[in-house]
Every structure is written in structure tokens, then in C-alpha cells.
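Reopening: C-alpha cells for the octanoyl-coenzyme A complex, inputs below.
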Amino acid sequence: MAVHVNRDDGVAVVTVDRPDALNALNTETNALLLEAVRGLSEDASVRAVVLTGGGEKSFVAGADIAEMKDLSADEARAFSVLGHQMADAIEGAPQPWIAAVNGFALGGGCELALACDIRLAAENAKFGQPEIGLAITPGFGGTQRLVRTVGPSWANFLVLSGRHIRADEALAIGLVTAVYPKDRLLHEATKLARELAAKSAIAMRACKQALRQAQRLDLTSGLRLEKDVFSGCFDGPDQLEGMTAFMEKRPPDYEGR
Ligand code: CO8
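Re-run output (same inputs, fresh job):
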């Protein structure tokens, strides 16, 4: 199987594992990944997810070029739709998703990382949207999410040139939030996931929903949504427990409601 899911104490680690093809996404891998995302979204015991690539060299080196080569326009649309469904499922998941980028994150791989809530990189990671070199555009959200994540200046440069950038450059432009030595990346990503998993699941979901909508709504509508999600937190027991625990100088014990 090209996708593995390991659950441990509220944290799931999802590994895209086709190292012989640098974890390129073919239809089968996309379908397995989508199935994994949907399964995890329905599993309330999983409160944070880490996404990484199998092998030593790559997170995901893009969509599978060998498979894409002979697609018709209609087949290419179906391929792109599947990719978009996966990105939407990750964005819409109740838990935070952390991309642990352990090597090449190119094309669909960079776009997959962009669908995650937080991106961490290993020092050897490389990012890029090389599609222009194949005479196609990004097709898995890259033209839209990259602009919203790093701004039009860097997004234009990356998409129009097809050049790869290093992890330190990705950090400088805000594409990732931290860079670690390769052998520490998964440890750091899992540590962060555990930290997020310990928060109130209902508040995490509400924050994620509001942040996601910030990419889609105009400011007035977004600020209205924030009032709704903020006040909604006061409908469940976690808010009282969180504030009581703070006042009593003890860790909170959340119900996730
Ligand atoms: N697709 C298929 N096979 C791949 C891919 C890929 N994207 N990337 C690497 N491979 C394969 C190679 O063909 C090679 O296979 P083999 O050993 O059988 O020859 C193996 O992986 C190892 O690769 P290399 O020998 O090339 O390794 P190098 O270290 O020399 O180079 C690179 C690594 C720089 C990553 C190089 O492999 C490369 O440039 N790969 C292609 C990267 C790319 O262009 N990605 C974008 C693809 S287009 C895309 O993602 C569009 C997304 C839109 C829709 C998505 C819907 C889900």
C-alpha cells in the first residue's frame, strides 16, 4: 500500500510511501490518501495529523508524470478533481494537519503541503511548482493557495519560473514555519502534533474553520464569522474548563465539546 496511517495516543502519522517514484501521486495513491483523510476526519480519537513522505529523498515529487502524460483533457480534469477533493478534505478536516516536508515537495507535493494547516521542513527539503516546465499549470490548488500563503510576488516567481527553492528560502518567504535537521523533523512534527492534540478539540475545529474561511470571505463576512465561532465556544464545557484550569494553575481536562 502506498499510504500508511499510524495512530498513537491521539496523533496519526500519514506516510505517502512510493519511494521508487519519489512518492509521486498516481490515481491509486491519490485515492488511498483521500480515503485516509476521510477516515481520519471521522475518527474523533485522532486530534492531530502529521503528513510525510516515505524514503530518504522526498515528501511528494508531484503528480505521477508517467500516468499524466497520455491523459485527455477530460481525464486530466478528473485527475485534478481528485487532487482538489483531497486538498479540500484536508482543509476541511476537524483536526490540524501538519506537513513534515522531508525532501522534494514539487508540483502536487507542494500543493499537498499547502493544503495542510502548518508546514515544517527538513534542511534538505526542496519546494517548487515545476509544472511550467512540463507545459502545464499547477492543477491541485497551487495557483490559488500559493498566492494566499506567500503572496503574489513569490507565487508568480515560483509558478512562472518553475524553479525549486531550498528549505531556508521557503522559511524566509513564509512557506514553512520551521526548518529542522532531517533526522529531527518527524520528532519535531510529532511533538507539535501532540501539543495541538492536547488542546480543546472543539476550539481547534472552530479556529481551523475561521482561519480557512479567512482565505475565502471578504473582511466584513470573516469578522462576522469570528464573532459566531468565538461565542459558540461558550456553549460547551471546554471553555469553562480551560479558563478554570488557568485560574487554578493546573492543566485543563477537556471533553472536546
Ligand atoms: N512522476 C513520476 N515519476 C517520478 C516523479 C513524478 N512526478 N518524480 C520522480 N519520479 C521518478 C523518476 O522518474 C525516477 O524513476 P526511475 O528510477 O524509474 O527512472 C525516480 O522517481 C527517481 O527520480 P530521479 O532519478 O529523477 O531522481 P533525482 O534525484 O535525479 O531528481 C527530482 C529528483 C528533481 C525530484 C526529479 O525526479 C524531478 O524533477 N521529478 C519531477 C518533479 C515534477 O516535475 N513534479 C511536478 C509534476 S506535475 C504536477 O505535480 C501537477 C499536479 C497537478 C494535478 C495533481 C492532482 C493530484
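The chain has two domains: 3-197, 201-248. The beta strands are 3-8, 11-16, 48-53, 58-60, 97-101, 104-106, 118-122, 126-128, 164-166, 178-180. Marking as resolved unless the reporter disagrees.
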